[in-house]
Amino acid sequence: MIKSVLAAIPIYNMSCFKMSFAVGKSLNNLLKNFVWEGAKDNKKIPLINWDTLCLMKEDGGASLRKMELQNSALDAKLSWKMCKEPQKIWSRLFQKKYLDSEDTNRILTVANTERGSAMWNFLWDCKHIITDHILWQIGNGNTALFWRDSWDGFPALSESFEDKRWVDMVENCIGQHVCNYMENQSDQNGLRIWKKINVGNPSLCEKLWKAIKDRKIPESVEKDNIIWCAAKSGVYNSKLGYEVQRQRGSNNTWQHKLCWNHKILPKVGAFLWIALHTRNLMGDRLKTIGILGPNRCVMCRVDEESANHLLFSCPVVEYCWN
Ligand SMILES: [Zn+2]
């Protein structure tokens, strides 16, 4: 209900505009309150905090979504569309106004542009969700960055060298893009020939040559293509765009299948989930939050009421289990 209805209502607006901090917080509060209070306005104690609710079920959460991250994931889709649909009017407008280039893929590689409309600024701020997970398929080599991008299925070349200062030096000498490092002709197998790098330092040149000599790029006039490697299909989608931003829990042994299981009643699953977090409102927990009252177990009237006692160690319950 929360994920498919409540969280889905603002999706259209969120996919174009940045929500203010206050609006995001209010939406998160509405969702959080609905979890514990339902549609009616009856105050109840939130048993599990919002950050835990937003963890994945495998990490002990309920897989709810934080609106601000959902907002970024939806907006990153605009960056992706801009690269993949350069002929669209809005895309051409942005590329002319802010990128000063015919190539819309350039949004992924240019380091800075001027700030502009609210939509452009937000699109620019969210593009890291795309750029952190892209691989380049090299075509004519005009867009992908030779040292800094992952291309040809390998990690970025700059990552194999500890000292990164030389990257600036080589880029200043030769250029940033893959095409700057290719000869104009190909070999007899149709593979591009790499230029010999000459930056004055023989041992560095030797090292650089070793890193690139085995990379084989077929000759092509197509422009460089991007693949979003967080998705198996290589195509960005906002659902996975959210997942790559989601905070991961530290507990990898969470028994989520016990609680989130279609074979048991949802309310039983929810009770179990809260019990595994030891957050049920038993006598021991009520005491810690300042609600004092009789806290003996109502069945044996001997021990303090706690989740562990009521579910396992109470003699009456033991008799049931046996
Ligand atoms: Zn008992």
Helices and strands in order:
Elements: H1 2-6, H2 11-14, H3 21-37, H4 50-53, H5 67-84, H6 89-99, H7 118-126, H8 128-131, E1 134-137, H9 165-173, E2 182-186, E3 192-194, H10 202-212, E4 225-228, H11 238-243, H12 256-259, H13 266-276, H14 283-288, H15 307-313, H16 315-321
Helix pairs in contact: 5-7, 15-16
The protein binds zinc ion (ZN).
The site of zinc ion (ZN) has 7 residues, from loops.
Features:
5% strand, mainly alpha, 322 residues, two-stranded antiparallel sheet, 16 helices, binds zinc ion, elongated
Describe this structure in words.
- Among the domains are: 100-112 and 122-243, no CATH class; 256-321, no CATH class.
- It contains 16 helices and four strands.
- The chain has helices spanning 2-6, 11-14, 21-37, 50-53, 67-84, 89-99, 118-126, 128-131, 165-173, 202-212, 238-243, 256-259, 266-276, 283-288, 307-313, 315-321; strands at 134-137, 182-186, 192-194, 225-228.
- Helix 5 (67-84) crosses helix 7 and helix 15 packs across helix 16.
- The chain is mostly helical.
- The longest helix has 18 residues, at 67-84.
- Helices cover 41% and strands 5% of the residues.
- It has a two-stranded antiparallel ribbon. A two-stranded antiparallel ribbon has the order 2-3.
- Zinc ion is lined by residues 297, 299-300, 303, 309, 314, 316.
